[in-house]
Fold this sequence. Notes:
This protein is of the alpha/beta class. The protein contains 9 helices and 12 strands. Helix 2 links the parallel strand 6 (78-84) and strand 7. Helix 2 runs parallel beside helix 3.
Amino acid sequence: MTTPRIFSPHPLCERQLYTLGGEHQHYLKNVLRIRIGDAVTLFDGSGSDYRGVVERLDAQDLAVRIVNRTAIAGKTCRLTLAQALPKGSKMDDIVEKATELGVDRIIPFISSRSVPKWSIEKAADRVVRWRKIAIEAARRCRRTDIPPIEEVVPYEDILRMAQREEDMLRMARQDIAAPSPPWSESESAAKCPVLADVRDAAFCPIIFWEEGGQSVKSILHSENGRKADHFFLVIGPEGGFPREEVNSAQERGFVVAGLGAQVLRVETASLVVLAILQYETGIFSEMNDDMKFNNIREVKT
């Protein structure tokens, strides 16, 4: 049986005892039939897995003692997905699958052809829902960090955010203190890491357009694509981008890309793009020994 993996909203430390919340207690005790001494893996979104054992188990309480911590090696590049709001519940699936595919940040936005016209309150409620979906997806796929889901913004804000990201990278290359990042101040810096080796790094903003553009392969094999440590990907709504929005992106330094002659559904296009980028940047590698350890039923103390 695979070791259960549970998200903790609070920071974790080695050798400490943690009492799990009610929903986790029910899942572990009544569904998985966990017993004292069984292995449980906890993670808090900071980039590490915490292996523990059930130390206390009764009708009111289930507590896990952390045995050790395993830090996961850093990524070679970052992926930001700026996704125009699609119809219905499609964004739920995009957030879930993008988290599984290792995206580092998701920014939902409204373009001129976006169908959803939400109130501020409804948009905020959806963001809360998407953040919960990202946590659950990270738990299932053994991901140790959780991609921040930003508030819904207008299309023009996406272009400004990309420009700020590029400015930050340029300043980092020059060893100059960077300004505050464009994500929410409430997000942990550990969840929005800046790669340490940036002297030869490049920023690669790409907007995808069904009416054509460069192939993804040619972009990735260009000089900027080969050096890129951050890809900023912009995917449009069901109706696609009007030419004016694409022109605005090009004026801000975006490369226009196409995905061939076939027109993909928006939820398909996002996942295809992420899968291609992750394949090229090396996330799809052989399972290492630390990951295999998570399949062991018991932890020896």
